[in-house]
Amino acid sequence: MNLIKDILFHKKNPGTLGFFSFGVYQFALIFLLQWISRTVFLLHRGAAGQMSAPDMAGTWWHGLPLDLSMTCYLFLPVWLYMFFCLLLRKTPQWSMTTGYLLLLTVCLVFLSAADAEMYRVWGSKFNRQALDYMRHPDEALASSSDAAWGILGFELVVIVWLYYRISGLKRPSPASLSVKTATLQVLILPLLVLGLRGGTGNVPISQSSAYFSPLQAANLAAVNSGWNFFYYVTNKSDKVNPEDYNHGVPADESLILFGKPSTAFTFTQTERPNVVVIVLESFTAGVSQRFGGKRNHTPFLDSLAATGLAFTRAYAQGDRTDKGLACVFSGWPGQPWQSILNEPDKAARLPSLAQVFGSRGYRTVFTYGGDLDFANMGAYLRNSGFQQVADLHSFSGSRESKWGMYDGTMFSSLSAILDTLQKPFFAGALTLSSHEPYDVPGPLQVQGSKPVHKFFNSIQYTDRELRRFFNSNQHKPWFSNTIFVLVADHGRDIGDPDMEYDHPGHFHIPIVVWGSPLLPQYKGMAVNRVVSQTGIAPFLCAIADSAAATRFSWSAGLLNPHVSSAIYFYTGGFGLVSDSTALVFHNEPAGVVFQRGNSKIADKLLRAGQAAQFRLIADYLRF
């Protein structure tokens, strides 16, 4: 008992045990910081509200191994400092250890709050996709502009002040070099090594050790934010092990989701019409009543849907713009990890609409108001066969918003480019004003200070600019012989039911095909069965080269009546939707976390989804 008192209350005994107990105290403070960081993740912007009391308790228990591992990593510099002080017979400086502790406090609290913000928007913590985005600080800051920086600042001030106070409760003892002191210090090192690698097993500790619940919010809360961040920073390669996704389902069971490769269905009445594909940033179906939403923020898009060919139950394949581009123009599904655009050599091997149309004598162009170097989008577009690519650097004048040029400026540039192109042409465009921070010109059309109100206002702005683009070009010679395809890159959570980051409502998007060349039977037609964003590529092959549709093996096209289901991927799993049934599957821990509709159909869909995911891994590794 006296020994324990000597270790804990060493001010009366500034010898060997006192010097050692100061290190124990520092270790305890660093460990406590891990729990404070988890509390920040849970409470900052309300992730805790999605959990029950048992789930909340589980985050602390199952997160303990990673917390200890991170504590050991962070304590190593303190151990080294004390060890050298011991060898040199110098008393450790309180200012050194306190300064280090306060620096850790700022970093870890900031990382936890950033993870909370990322979970709110992406449904995940820091990952390789976020690491890639950090290479573009302007765009990364623009994406986080609606984060609760004021709340974070307050949290930091309070926690740093508290830590400054408690770190002074125990001061360093003189470094007395003796056999006892040296032995204690040396024995600490192997314990630290065991702690940081998670024990004596052959496999070091990983994020999966913290996963314990079918509720993703609880799993992510259990994962130590600091450990997770440094893992991705120091392990930049993304090696995919196919067996991690092998559930023993034959590959051909995935065909119910995509159909067998086939030629495209004819839907135009003129030969070789122009094609313009406009990818609309974050245009969730939830902002349009015509596509099943509760709001009416896209009146012009809805008017095109009323007179064109509208797909009212379409689903995006992924959750980011770069994944959306690969899906729309290459028919490539989203992935349960980073975008394929993160590996330009693989993305360059994808089939593409630009190649199909370019090989048939079409002039191919792409226009975007932002910086296409972001997320390797420019490399993908150029490698995929677009002969002319215009982005922020092609515009005259200064940047108009944090992301680049307003959508009105981009549409004006697109009009000017299309006026000069030889016919026929295949053009792509990507809007950006409806991306955070929703920076658009003109008076507010939607009142309110919340981010969702700003989002609705930006959607209305882009919809107005879309109307202006169509109205200003409708009397030009090329317009009457052009097919327009309007599709969202991905969906968004706007607070409605079933719109959580992994649920079907989050991925529900509009697809509209419009133009004079449409066959009469398709004008004003609404397709109400489930279709996938991957169906756009084989669908458009009917215009340039029907046989080329078989290159896009992840869909049989939008008009195939034999397929009425869709799969989508998010970080860590996939979801499936059919006309009557839906489910969500997490890869780790493996299991269905959401299901509605017919259970027999759900079982069949699940097997198809597992087979599709395994097949996707094989295709990905083949490139």
Task: Summarize the helices and strands and which ones pair or pack.
Elements: H1 2-8, H2 16-43, H3 53-62, H4 64-87, H5 94-122, H6 128-133, H7 137-143, H8 149-167, H9 179-197, H10 216-222, H11 225-234, H12 255-258, E1 274-280, H13 299-307, E2 309-315, H14 321-330, H15 344-347, H16 353-359, E3 363-368, H17 377-383, E4 388-390, H18 407-420, E5 425-430, H19 451-473, E6 482-488, H20 504-507, E7 508-514, E8 525-532, H21 536-544, E9 565-570, E10 573-578, E11 582-587, E12 590-596, H22 599-622
Parallel strand pairs: 1-5, 1-6, 2-8, 3-4, 3-5
Antiparallel strand pairs: 2-7, 6-7, 9-10, 10-11, 11-12
Helix pairs in contact: 1-2, 2-4, 2-5, 2-9, 3-10, 4-9, 5-8, 18-19
